[in-house]
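User: Fold this; tokens only.

Assistant: Input:
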Amino acid sequence: MNARLLLMILAALEICGCAGFSKDGGFNDVAQATQTHLAKDLKWPRTDAEQAKVSAQVAELLAHPLSQDDAVQIALLNNRGLRASFDELGISEADLVQSGRLRNPSFDLRHASAAGQYDIEETLSFNVLSLLTMPYAHQIEKRRFAQLQNAVVLSVMRLATETRATFIAAVAARQSVDHMREVVAAAETSAELARSMVAAGNWNSVDEARERIFHVDAYRVMAQAGLNEKAASEKLTRLMGLPDTESGGRPAFELADRLPELPPSIESLPDVEAAILQNRIDLRLQRLRLDELRRSLKLTQATRFVNVLDAGPTRVRQGTRDEPYETGYVVTLEVPIFDGGSIRVKKSAAIYAQSVDRFAQAAIDARSQIRQAYATYRASFDIAKQQRDEVVPLRKTIAEQNLLRYNASLIGIFELLADAREQFLSSDAYIHSVRDFWIAKSELDAALIGDSAP
């Protein structure tokens, strides 16, 4: 018995020799996946020197007006919530290393004496069941660690998607505020002129009220656009991990002045099946969970009758101190009288079946998400392109013709101002359509990589 136990311990020690902490804590795989999918740097500073390098890189990006890619890069470098998910890698790796280590043996000592007679029992025991199942448990922990790496990659992708959408909303809100200032200025001029006309008796109060109401409405829309700009800017500040603002409440960064122009054409619908099989990180994560559950189920079936099995050498002395020790071994075994383990096996099988169904539904949802995201992407491009190529040029042509008509005294000043307002509003609508297109593009990219929902 002792020889067999020794052989099992030696075999386990050989397995334990491979169980150690890695230099990067599993982070390099996450960083490589980020580089592949986003072409962005990902850092995990764990020393003051490494943090200083990251801070210098962030400061360099903040030194000029931010582009969309700059904002995403700062968020990936500086978001402390994302960095906390990196710390989860360290926790999971500790569990992985622990699963490859032998449990400490236990030592029992029983000592009794009376009238010079001694009853001494010393036992050193090992958990044999954990020794036998350690290779399986270690493989399960390996898969759990791989799951966490994919989950962290998914968190990186979601942060990038949210940062990109927030940046687009912030820049669009700023452009909208600028345009609405021009509308408010035109409306104010029209309202003042209307008051003068009424005072001179050349206009009625109803027409004046219409001009004043439009002025108030334009100011309200401009104020709402300013609030949207402030909200998007604050959210972008949080996502980029920038805790402070400059004096006067202004953000510690400067955004680009305008959204990117529309591309000449849009991408074709990608191969949905290839996307969900190769690129969807959330489905890859669920497949790893299925593998883990399958292995866990086999482990549960193998140990359904044996839950506790401790064995080890023991020696006993009964009698005087001169009596020799009796040597042998002890085995502790849980007797499965009331619980034969069938409940655990049944539960594990149900959990596995549940996971299979969830994975199948997730694959269906992924296909639908990609198709829906592409439809939104294509429709938003068509709308923005129509605004740019047809509506805005037509409004400009009408404004130019109305100016000529005004100079020829064919129309009055109020008609000219009303047309100018319409031109400004159509430009604002174009800004929103471009914003919607770039957000749709970001959501399509996210759908191809993984579920973008939090």
